[in-house]
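Reminder to self: C-alpha coordinates first, then the designed residues, so the page reads top to bottom the way the pipeline ran.
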Protein backbone atom coordinates (compact mmCIF):
# COMPACT_ATOMS: atom_id res chain seq x y z
CA UNK A 1 0.00 0.00 0.00
CA UNK A 2 1.21 3.52 -0.80
CA UNK A 3 1.73 6.12 1.89
CA UNK A 4 -0.10 9.27 0.84
CA UNK A 5 0.00 10.96 4.25
CA UNK A 6 1.31 14.29 2.94
CA UNK A 7 -0.72 14.23 -0.27
CA UNK A 8 -3.85 16.13 -1.26
CA UNK A 9 -6.19 14.18 -3.51
CA UNK A 10 -9.23 15.19 -5.50
CA UNK A 11 -11.75 12.51 -6.41
CA UNK A 12 -14.42 13.77 -8.81
CA UNK A 13 -17.78 12.05 -8.82
CA UNK A 14 -16.97 10.77 -5.33
CA UNK A 15 -20.48 10.71 -3.93
CA UNK A 16 -21.08 7.30 -5.50
CA UNK A 17 -19.62 4.47 -7.56
CA UNK A 18 -15.96 4.36 -8.52
CA UNK A 19 -15.30 7.90 -7.30
CA UNK A 20 -16.62 6.98 -3.86
CA UNK A 21 -14.46 3.85 -3.75
CA UNK A 22 -11.43 5.89 -4.86
CA UNK A 23 -12.06 8.48 -2.13
CA UNK A 24 -12.15 5.78 0.54
CA UNK A 25 -9.01 4.10 -0.82
CA UNK A 26 -7.10 7.40 -0.95
CA UNK A 27 -8.14 8.17 2.63
CA UNK A 28 -7.07 4.69 3.77
CA UNK A 29 -3.65 5.45 2.31
CA UNK A 30 -3.48 8.69 4.31
CA UNK A 31 -4.37 11.34 1.74
CA UNK A 32 -6.42 14.40 2.56
CA UNK A 33 -9.35 13.86 0.18
CA UNK A 34 -11.48 16.42 -1.59
CA UNK A 35 -14.77 14.66 -2.27
CA UNK A 36 -16.34 16.24 -5.36
CA UNK A 37 -20.02 15.82 -6.15
CA UNK A 38 -22.22 17.14 -8.90
CA UNK A 39 -25.68 17.01 -7.36
CA UNK A 40 -25.84 14.61 -4.41
CA UNK A 41 -24.54 16.64 -1.48
CA UNK A 42 -26.01 14.27 1.10
CA UNK A 43 -24.14 11.28 -0.32
CA UNK A 44 -20.89 13.27 -0.55
CA UNK A 45 -21.23 14.46 3.04
CA UNK A 46 -21.75 10.82 4.08
CA UNK A 47 -18.46 9.89 2.38
CA UNK A 48 -16.71 12.76 4.19
CA UNK A 49 -18.27 11.73 7.52
CA UNK A 50 -17.12 8.13 7.09
CA UNK A 51 -13.58 9.19 6.16
CA UNK A 52 -13.41 11.52 9.15
CA UNK A 53 -14.96 8.87 11.38
CA UNK A 54 -12.16 6.54 10.38
CA UNK A 55 -9.60 9.19 11.38
CA UNK A 56 -8.99 10.66 7.91
CA UNK A 57 -9.21 14.15 6.49
CA UNK A 58 -11.81 15.08 3.91
CA UNK A 59 -13.97 17.92 2.64
CA UNK A 60 -16.78 17.94 0.09
CA UNK A 61 -17.23 20.40 -2.75
CA UNK A 62 -20.14 20.53 -5.14
CA UNK A 63 -19.62 21.74 -8.69
CA UNK A 64 -21.42 20.89 -11.92
CA UNK A 65 -18.53 19.86 -14.16
CA UNK A 66 -20.87 19.67 -17.15
CA UNK A 67 -21.31 23.44 -16.99
CA UNK A 68 -19.17 25.56 -19.30
CA UNK A 69 -17.39 27.09 -16.31
CA UNK A 70 -17.36 23.88 -14.27
CA UNK A 71 -13.58 23.41 -14.19
CA UNK A 72 -13.10 27.06 -13.21
CA UNK A 73 -15.68 26.75 -10.43
CA UNK A 74 -14.00 23.56 -9.20
CA UNK A 75 -10.66 25.38 -8.92
CA UNK A 76 -12.36 28.26 -7.07
CA UNK A 77 -13.86 25.76 -4.62
CA UNK A 78 -10.51 24.02 -4.12
CA UNK A 79 -8.76 27.33 -3.47
CA UNK A 80 -11.63 28.23 -1.14
CA UNK A 81 -10.57 25.29 1.04
CA UNK A 82 -7.16 27.02 1.30
CA UNK A 83 -5.61 24.31 -0.84
CA UNK A 84 -3.02 25.53 -3.31
CA UNK A 85 -2.02 22.28 -5.03
CA UNK A 86 -3.19 18.78 -5.86
CA UNK A 87 -0.96 15.73 -5.67
CA UNK A 88 -3.50 13.21 -6.96
CA UNK A 89 -6.52 13.62 -9.25
CA UNK A 90 -8.98 10.78 -9.76
CA UNK A 91 -11.33 11.92 -12.53
CA UNK A 92 -14.37 9.68 -12.19
CA UNK A 93 -17.22 12.16 -12.66
CA UNK A 94 -17.90 10.87 -16.17
CA UNK A 95 -18.23 14.38 -17.58
CA UNK A 96 -14.99 14.89 -19.55
CA UNK A 97 -11.98 12.90 -20.66
CA UNK A 98 -9.98 12.25 -17.46
CA UNK A 99 -6.68 13.43 -18.98
CA UNK A 100 -8.31 16.67 -20.11
CA UNK A 101 -9.88 17.33 -16.71
CA UNK A 102 -6.59 16.75 -14.91
CA UNK A 103 -4.79 19.05 -17.33
CA UNK A 104 -7.42 21.75 -16.98
CA UNK A 105 -7.23 21.64 -13.20
CA UNK A 106 -3.45 21.87 -13.10
CA UNK A 107 -3.49 24.77 -15.55
CA UNK A 108 -6.25 26.59 -13.72
CA UNK A 109 -4.57 26.17 -10.34
CA UNK A 110 -1.38 27.56 -11.84
CA UNK A 111 -3.30 30.48 -13.41
CA UNK A 112 -4.89 31.29 -10.04
CA UNK A 113 -1.45 31.54 -8.50
CA UNK A 114 -1.84 28.23 -6.74
CA UNK A 115 1.29 26.11 -6.88
CA UNK A 116 1.44 22.49 -8.01
CA UNK A 117 3.55 19.72 -6.55
CA UNK A 118 4.54 16.66 -8.55
CA UNK A 119 1.93 13.98 -8.97
CA UNK A 120 -1.04 16.16 -9.83
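Designed residues (120 positions):
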Amino acid sequence: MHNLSSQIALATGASRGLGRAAAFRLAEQGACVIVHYGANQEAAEAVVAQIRGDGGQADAIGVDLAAADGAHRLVEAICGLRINHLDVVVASAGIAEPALLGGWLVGLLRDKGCSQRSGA
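The first strand starts at residue 8 and ends at 12.
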